[in-house]
Each structure stands twice: as structure tokens, then as C-alpha cells.
Design goal:
The chain has a six-stranded mixed sheet. It has about 140 residues and is of the alpha+beta class. The radius of gyration is 15 Å and the shape is globular. A hairpin with a 4-residue loop joins strand 3 and strand 4. About 20% of the residues lie in helices and about 40% in strands.
Length: about 140
């Protein structure tokens, strides 16, 4: 994470870096939050306590990720597969994240599939799917 204004979310850097790498030259901006706009809709199609199902705009998404990193520290994000469709206006990414639940010390490993719609070289809509059972098991496991 090169920009100090994103330091509060540094524990999610592996995710941000993976997304930025996946989108490559389809978008403008160095950091994940540089390619999000005030009109971006970030939708998650699963229920996780404390995480809203729809987040609109850069400011609210940054606030949500600050809450995320209060609970989970990511060490890596990998297994990236990128599918470009609709002349690069829609990108589907599959990936995994690996980290630690801070409150318990339990390892967190999850798989995701995200459908990203781009407009004017920015993310306009994000639809996210994940392994909800993996998240639930990690978040509710007893402390180590």
C-alpha cells in the first residue's frame, strides 16, 4: 500500500493488490480505492454479521474495510483467475484470501467470485460471492 491515506486499511492489502492486478490496464489508479467512485455499488450476496449487503460509494466502502481490518488481517490473496467479458467492461475474478481472525487467532481461508462492471475506467458495480460457511466457521471458532 503506497498511499498513506489508505494506511487504516493496510491489513487488507493482499486483497487490494490482487484486485488491482486482476484489472490491470482496464482501470486508472494505483490502489483499489483509486478505482472506486462515489457512484460505485459494492454488493455482497451473502450474510456476514456487521457487513452490509450493499455499500454505495468510496467513502462508505473505505469505512466498511476499516471495520473488516479491525477483525481480520490478511496475509495473502492468491489463486487468481480472471475472465474478461463484454469487451473488458465486465470482469469476473475468482480468488482466495488467507488471514487471521484477530479476536481469536483462528486462521481464515476463503474463496470468492466477484463480478465487476467497469465504466470510464473505474469500478461501477461489484457483486461478490464467497464461501459463507468458511467465514462462519472462522468467525465463530473458539480462540486458540
Amino acid at each position: 500500500m503506497t498511499n498513506p491515506k489508505y494506511a487504516a486499511c493496510a491489513a487488507a492489502s493482499p486483497y487490494f493488490d490482487l484486485v488491482r492486478r486482476a484489472l490491470g490496464d482496464l482501470v486508472d489508479g494505483d490502489h483499489f480505492f483509486d478505482i472506486i467512485t462515489d457512484g460505485t455499488i459494492y454488493e455482497v450476496l451473502y450474510d456476514v454479521p456487521g457487513w452490509p449487503s450493499v455499500i454505495q460509494g468510496r467513502t462508505d466502502l473505505m469505512a466498511a474495510f476499516r471495520g473488516y481490518v479491525d477483525n481480520i488481517a490478511l496475509q495473502t490473496a492468491d489463486q487468481l483467475i480472471v475472465h474478461k467479458t463484454d469487451d473488458g467492461r465486465v470482469v469476473v475474478i475468482e480468488y482466495e484470501v488467507h488471514g487471521t481472525i484477530l479476536a481469536s487467532g483462528v486462521k481464515y481461508n476463503n474463496r470468492f467470485c466477484s463480478i465487476i462492471r467497469l465504466e470510464d475506467r473505474k469500478i461501477m458495480r461489484w457483486r461478490d460471492y464467497m464461501d459463507s460457511l468458511a467465514a462462519w466457521k472462522a468467525l465463530t471458532a473458539p480462540a486458540r
